[in-house]
Structure formats: structure tokens, C-alpha cells
Amino acid sequence: MQQVFGNKKAIAVFVLPTLILFIVVGFLPIVQSVYYSLLEWDGFGKGKFVGFALYQDLFVNDTYGIKFLNSVWNTFYLAILSVCVQLPFAFFLAHVLARGIKGEKFYRTFFFIPVTISSAVIGLLFLSVLNPNYGVLNIVLDQLGLGSWKHDWLTEDKTALSSIFLPAVWQWVGYYMLLMYAAIKGISEDLFEAAKIDGASGWRMTFSIVIPLIAPIIKVCVIFAVIGSLKFFDLTFIMTNGAPQPATDVPSTLMYNAIFRRNMYGYGSVMAVFMVLECLLVYFALQRLFRSREEEVAR
Amino acid sequence: MISALRTKWSNVVLQFFLIAFAVVQLYPLVWLVLTSFKTNLEITGSNVIGLPSKWMFENYKYVWVGSDLARNFANSLWYTAITVVASGLLASMVSYAVTRMKWKLSKLVLLIIMSGLMIPVHATLLPLFIILRDVHLLNTPWALIVPYTVNAIPTAMFILVGFFSALPRELEEASVVDGCSIYQVFFRIMLPLVKPALVSISIFTFLSAWNELMFANTFINKSSLMTITVAINSLRGLHTTEYGPIAAGMVIATLPTILMYIFLSDKVQKSIVAGAIKG
Known about the structure:
The complex is a heterodimer.
Chain A: H1 2-5, H2 8-36, E1 39-40, E2 48-49, H3 53-61, H4 68-98, H5 104-112, H6 119-129, H7 136-143, H8 157-185, H9 189-197, H10 202-213, H11 215-230, H12 234-239, H13 251-260, H14 265-298
Antiparallel strand pairs in A: 1-2
Helix pairs in contact in A: 2-14, 4-8, 4-11, 5-8, 6-8, 11-14, 13-14
Chain B: H1 2-35, H2 40-46, H3 58-66, H4 69-100, H5 106-114, H6 125-134, H7 142-166, H8 169-177, H9 182-193, H10 195-211, H11 214-219, H12 228-238, H13 243-276
Helix pairs in contact in B: 3-13, 4-5, 4-7, 4-10, 4-12, 7-10, 8-9, 10-13, 12-13
């Protein structure tokens, strides 16, 4: 028995292919990114080692005037939008559906559809919806007599950023709804019965039973929403690629453009390294925040 | 009595609200389908919102025959299929070895691969590009299949490790007593038992590989090898004013995921939930 389950050769056959692939394709590249970020390199020939000079160029001097920190702020704006608007709304939908309403399954199924569609399609779709001349949004505003609300959504400084975030919020509401829905469905009906007998109101049940009991999934949603915002790429890339610069710039598209459009490999890698550190830092900060919350509740 | 009336009213309000939201979620997609059947003239002004005056099936023919789209569609299909099978198999093998077999470094291997859940793939873009260039795999299917497979493995393992750990030991031991080798135990006994998990991760991997954009856009620029997501994005550069055919291309690109969702909506939803509970 021991021999079979401790079979070294079999373990190697099961584990090594994946482990090697994972290290070469997933792990080493991160290390390489760190190394590239210390080089001044255009991708041809050998790079010149310059230490942290490019970090200083990017964050302090802004040598190329690309306003990287502004792009970081843009993604935080999306993160805030996501956590403060999208998630509460998703929770509301999840709650209404999970506590039983006519058409529960129908709504749940339909609200989730946009999640299955590629962001390339969503991006192109909303480019048309937001088109100033023949986009659905402006036409509907006109017909409602709200012509003064019309905008050239994607090219005006004020509206451009929100306009590319709109489809992201729209697309993923159903995703967070589903996660919270599944969690609420997992709460034992007895708890609600008991609370009802004790005379708890609907609001009271929401805040004293539902939210505390699904806190773990709320944590998952917040982490996904925030980290997903910081890594935001597809819709910016498809819809504006940063225009009107720098209104809709995000770190990932700046990185992409630095590397593949301007051949600034070292500079782009600085941004890549920044994103890795940023995501890790924010991840642990959120974990910590939720842990201290949990302890407070436990007390 | 009054409270019953109130519940009834609040139900009506809620229903109204839910229907309104369903319209918001679905209308853009319905609009896309309608647009794909319209003429340019209708799309750019004369009939943006209504039904097409004449159903232009030509738009579909135009984009399917007149561009590489059929090719791109097939590319996406088989890149995704290989990714699903390869990542499912590799992840099952490692998950099995980590949870059911006895060796010293199992915890460490699990930790290393699970750390992949935290890595933003963006940071691997340039190094991967350089590696693929150096080994002459840029502009080949493998430039996408290999990274997609690797990126799918951590999530897949997350689900599978849970499933494997929950299986009873006796079954394996009995089959070993009966003379099964470890490979037979794995392929004949254990793998069939985690089938529900395999369905979940297949759906999950299928969706993310089919919809992936950044790698697909970077590692392949030959139009005959492109995936469909990249291809429809480049359509608008090639055919700037052919809005109808572009919309048709977008519908085509969406069909496989939507069809899967229509037929397997409960399974898809389960898969998404399973893939997320890893905070």
C-alpha cells in the first residue's frame, strides 16, 4: 500500500509537468519583470543596467509626461465605484431574489448573461451605444426630452472615464449578485423563522442575520472588485486606449503602450512591477481590514 | 390585513423594478442582434432603435465569407478546447498527488501553484513575449494555449483539491488490494468520481480562455491564427464603415458562450460560484 501511494515515479509524472510549466510561464516572468525594470532597454540588443533610475523617472520626475499616478487614481476611482455602487446594488438584487420572489430563477438567469460575454464584444457594443451621433443613449435622451443631457461621452474629459467604467459595472453586477445570492441561499431558513417569531423587522433581519452570515462572501466580492479594478485593461484598450489623454489612462494600458508601441521595455516593466506590488499590498490590506472586523463582531 | 396589502404593493414595486433592470441588462444585447441585421444607413441614423426594415442576412454572409472570421472562430474553438482538456488533466493529476499520495514536498508544491491565484497576469506579459519570441513560438497556437493552460490551473486546483480530499480512502485501498496500479487508481477510480468538479472547471476555463484579450492580442498578429475576440476588434480598423457586418461578427463571437449558458445555465452558475469561493 505504502509503495503504491508513495510511488516516487508516479508522483513525478503527476506533478513535474505542471510544476515546470507553472514556474516557467507563471513564476519566472515575475522575477524577470523585476530585472527588466532595472534596465534601460528598447527590446533590441542588450539593456543598460540603471538601477532604480526608471522608478524615479516614472514616479518622481515623470520624464515622459505620461502621468502614471493619475492612471493609478483612475483605477481607484473604479474600485470605489465598484465597492460603493455596484456591490450594494448586487447585494440588493441577491437579497430580493434569494428571499423568494416570483420569477426568482428567471431574473437570476437573465441578470447573469452579460458576465458570459467577452469584454471585447462589450467594449465594441458600448462604443456604439455611446456614439454621439447615432448611439442609443443620446437618442433615448433626445426622445425623453432630455436633449441637454446629451454628451460626446467618450471624448469629453469629464465623461470619458465614467463612460468606460459604465459597461464594466453593468457587465459584472450579475456576477456579484450570483455570488451573494448563493451565500444567502445557504443561510438556514430556521434562523429567519426564529427572528420572525422574535418580532424582527425585515431590515433588522437583513442587518443582523444576512450581512453577518455572508460576510465571508462579501469579503471575496470586495477583493475581486478592487483587485479587478486595479488590473482593469480590456475595456480601456478597446474603447479609448487612454484618450482623451490622460483622462482614461489606466496602468495596464500605459504599460502595454510603453512596451509595445514605444519599445520602452524597462519603463513598461516598472509599471508591471508596480502593479504586482500594488495588488499584493491591497490584497493583504483588505484581508486585514476584514479580519479586524470579524474579531470585532466576535467580541 | 394592512400588512398583507403592504406586502402585495411592495411586491408589485419590486417586480416592476426587477423587470426594468432585466431590460437594462438585456436591451444592449437585443439591440446588438437587431443591429447585425440592419443596413449601414439604418444603423447610422434612420433607424437606430427599431426593428430592421429588411432582415439583412447578407451581413452575416459578408463577415463570415469576406473576412477570416470563420477561421478565427475555429481557432478560438480549438485553442479553448485544448486549454480546457490540458488544464483539467494537469490540475487533476497534481491535485490528486497533493491530496492522496504521500510525499514530503506536497504542501510546498500546493502553496507554489496556489500563489498563482494572486499573480496579476499583466506582469507576465513582456517576459512571456520575450520567452515565446526566443523559442520561436510567437504567432503559433502554442503562444496562447500554454499560458491559458497555466493560468487556468490554480483555480482548477483550488476546486479539485477540495473534491479529492473529501473522497473516502477505502475505495482507493480496495482497488490497490485488487491489484490496480496507481495510474489505474487515478484514471479509472478517482477521476470519474470528481466529474462534477471537472465540469465546473471546464466551464470556468472555457469562459476565460474564449474571452481572453490581452495575450491573444499580443502573442499573435497573423490574421489566420488570431482568436475571434481579437479578430472582431481588428474588423473595425479594416472595415471602418461596415457597421452591420461588424455587429454580425460580434454576435458570432458571442454565440458559443451564450449557447453554453442557455443550455447549462445552472451548471455555469454553479461553476462560477465554485471558482470564486477561494478568498
